[in-house]
Design a protein that fits this description.
The chain is mostly beta strands. The protein is 9% helix and 33% strand. Strand 2 and strand 3 form a beta hairpin.
Length: 558
């Protein structure tokens, strides 16, 4: 049904008829001018009740030209009720359905209030939809709206066949008939789906997030789109008919805006005010579906970058040398060697020996036990900030992605410092028993004590990979290393003299009346070296020194 408004603001001494349509969203408001006669209101009763004010007028001659409250009882209505009869307008007999005057009665009511009626018949009121349904379905009725503007001008609108349905039909206007009256020049009709209102916000299909404020209007009231209706061109349409209405979101997308559904399995995009739906939208294996800063979509996990559908590894550091070029200082960092996308923590030595060193082992006290199993040496133990072994799997991954040099720093019992530098260093994988590969030596440690271990497999107390079938070198030396074939001292002229004595050859372990050794170097033995052959040693530097105070191993790309 169409909607209309007065061109001028109406005075307060007015009567208003309000009709509710089947959807409960469109209103027709017409103002009917009433001239007060000053006559007192009275109730006229008779045994047989009149069905409307027209019958009241015809039945009782004393009501001629007298407006007031009378009892009527439409056909089928259970009880008589009071109605205001206007007998002064156009020969009288008008049953007044609604009156608005001074805004003293609130008309913003619920369904039940409009069903039963409310207000005061002597001032402002609504007769009630239930009464109105019975009333308009017993005869053919003319509906008349009367208006009076602020200048005191009166005009009216009529419909010659007015009827509404019952509550089951939601009091729908089922008939209005032919339109007539004198108000056409005073009315402005609102387009379909708009109402005459002072609503403060309207939205458009093209820009649904921007509110068109009433402060920009030159008139206090106008025809507006409200609720779920939005402006498209000059029309007012339901938002689900807008070109970029996203059903998953239940709202209209702005041009250039996207929306991803709750499972990240579909993305809707508004482009050039046209909606495109990607049913193939899926997160990468290296991404997760998440909501961040109010936006749901696929996000790449840490270490990866991209739009979430496609994720690639970030340019992450593979070793401490790649961190060193960024100006990092000594400390624990996470690096990402090939094959380890989640990263590993290492200690980086950045401020000495040229910097960029990745520490793989450190010994500085007896606080950490290095007499460990194969599994423990495989994955590493203790924190990189202190005494630790990084882990053979990690050492293998790092040393096989580039060519690395090895530096070993040593401090003896008299606090003298030494170092050994090897031009290349790497170890193989678990299947090849972490076999050592080492290059040429330089330094001041006095002896190339690692050369004899080249190409030897790694051994631990529970995994004997040395070349001596009679003894387990890792057990005898109480540690883990690249042990090889033994050296046995019993026939040499000085061996019988020095081997039995604890203060000599402390890097040897006793064998009968002699002694033996499985390595020229061993940096993973007991820190205190309380038993012969179990201490940390570096041949010739510590042959008679049974207690190195410090040792560390670190690598850097060549």
């Amino acid at each position: 049904m169409a909607k209309f408004r007065c061109r001028q603001v109406c005075q307060s001494f007015l009567t208003v008829l309000t009709l509710w349509n089947s959807l409960g969203s469109e209103m027709v408001v017409a103002n009917v001018g009433i001239q007060s006669s000053g006559s007192p209101y009275f109730v006229f009763q008779q045994p047989e009740y009149s069905r409307d004010c027209k019958e009241v007028l015809n039945t009782c001659s004393s009501t001629q030209n007298t407006s007031g409250v009378y009892l009527i009882k439409p056909d089928g209505y259970p009880e008589p009720f009071e109605a205001y009869c206007d007998n002064e307008l156009n020969n009288g007999g008008w049953t007044v359905l609604q009156r608005r005057r001074l805004d003293s009665v609130n008309f913003n009511r619920n369904w039940q209030d409009f069903k039963n009626g409310f207000g005061f018949l002597g001032s402002e009121f609504w007769i009630g939809n239930e009464k109105l349904a019975f009333l308009t379905n017993q005869k053919i009725y003319q509906l008349r709206f009367e208006f009076e503007n602020s200048a005191g001008q009166s005009y009216y609108v009529t419909y010659d066949q007015f009827r509404i349905s019952d509550e089951w039909g939601q009091y729908q206007i089922s008939s209005v008939g032919t339109y007539g009256g004198t108000a056409e020049s005073q009315l402005e009709w609102c387009p379909t789906n708009k109402i005459f209102s002072n609503e403060t916000c309207e939205r458009t299909c093209d820009d649904p997030d921007t509110c068109i404020s009433s402060t920009s209007r030159t008139e206090l009231e106008k025809c507006v789109c409200v609720g779920d209706y939005m402006i498209q061109g000059e029309n007012c349409i339901p938002q689900n008919q807008c070109s970029c209405f996203a059903a998953d979101k239940g709202t209209v997308l702005m041009n250039g805006e996207s929306y991803v559904n709750s499972g990240c399995t579909r993305r809707s995009n508004c482009s050039n005010n046209q909606l495109m739906v990607e049913d193939s939208y899926r997160c990468s294996d290296d991404a997760t579906c998440d909501v961040r800063e109010g936006v749901r979509r696929c996000y790449c996990i840490d270490g990866y970058e991209g739009d979430g559908v496609t994720c690639t590894r970030k340019a992450v550091p593979k070793d401490c040398q790649e961190l060193y070029v960024d100006g990092s200082s000594d400390g624990v960092y996470t690096i990402y060697p090939d094959g380890w996308p989640s990263g590993i923590q290492v200690y980086c030595e950045m401020e000495s020996n040229g910097g960029g060193w990745t520490v793989i082992q450190r010994r500085s006290s007896a606080s950490v036990d290095f007499y460990r199993t194969w599994a423990e040496y495989k994955t590493g133990f203790e924190h990189p900030r202190g005494d630790h072994w990084l882990g053979n799997d990690y050492i293998h991954a790092i040393t096989n992605q580039k060519e690395y040099s090895l530096r070993i720093d040593l401090t003896d019992s008299s606090s003298s410092s030494y170092y050994a530098l090897y031009s290349s260093f790497s170890i193989s994988d678990d299947a090849d028993k972490y076999r050592l590969s080492i290059g040429s030596y330089s330094g001041n440690s006095g002896y190339n004590a690692m050369s004899w271990h080249n190409n030897k497999p790694f051994s631990t107390r529970d995994r004997d990979n040395d070349e001596w079938s009679s003894y387990d070198c890792a057990e005898k030396h109480r540690g883990a290393w690249w042990f090889g074939y033994y050296y046995y001292c019993i026939t040499s002229s000085h061996c019988p003299t020095y081997c039995p004595r604890d203060e000599y050859y402390c890097d040897y372990f006793p064998v009968g009346s002699g002694c033996a050794i499985c390595a020229d170097s061993h940096l993973n033995g007991d820190y205190d070296g309380s038993t012969r052959g179990t201490n940390i040693f570096w041949s010739y530097l510590s042959g008679y020194d049974c207690g190195l105070q410090y040792a560390d191993m670190k690598i850097r790309p060549v």
